[in-house]
């Protein structure tokens, strides 16, 4: 019985790269011209990219808290 080759999922190199890939992926999904199996795999990739972006943002937020010595201020646009 032959097994199908596994797809190797690579992590993005940066937040910006992940965000760009996610935006492109959403555009392809919204176009609605993907076969169902590909749609599912692309949706899963999108979930992975979203998780990656959220984790990166949380790390930056934690670093900002340290730099501000825990005194976070609410940002208001001028």
Description:
The chain is an all-alpha fold and 78 residues long. It has a domain of 53 residues: Helix Hairpins (Orthogonal Bundle), CATH 1.10.287. 63% of the residues lie in helices and 0% in strands. It is built from 2 helices and no strands. Helix 1 runs antiparallel to helix 2. The chain is elongated.
Lay out the secondary structure.
Elements: H1 15-31, H2 36-67
Helix pairs in contact: 1-2
The percent of residues in helical segments reads 55-70%
Uncertain runs are 1-5
What is the CATH H-level superfamily of the domain at 15-67? Answer: Exonuclease VII, small subunit
How far is the N terminus from the C terminus?
65 Å
The name of the CATH architecture of the domain at 15-67 is Orthogonal Bundle
Cα radius of gyration in angstroms: 18 Å
Element order: H for helix, E for strand = HH
Largest sheet: none
Quaternary structure annotation:
single chain
Mean pLDDT: 82
Give the C-level CATH assignment of the domain at 15-67. Answer: Mainly Alpha
* SS-based class: mainly alpha
CATH fold title of the domain at 15-67: Helix Hairpins
- The tally of strands reads 0
Please, how many helices?
A: 2
Kindly estimate the percentage of residues that lie in beta strands according to DSSP. under 5%
């Amino acid at each position: 019985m032959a097994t199908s080759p596994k797809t190797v999922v690579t992590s993005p190199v940066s937040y910006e790269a992940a965000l760009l890939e996610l935006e492109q992926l959403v555009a392809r999904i919204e176009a609605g011209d993907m076969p169902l199996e590909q749609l599912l795999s692309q949706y899963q990739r999108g979930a992975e990219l979203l998780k990656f972006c959220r984790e990166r943002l949380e790390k930056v937020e934690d670093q900002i808290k340290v730099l501000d010595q825990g005194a976070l201020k609410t940002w208001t646009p001028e």
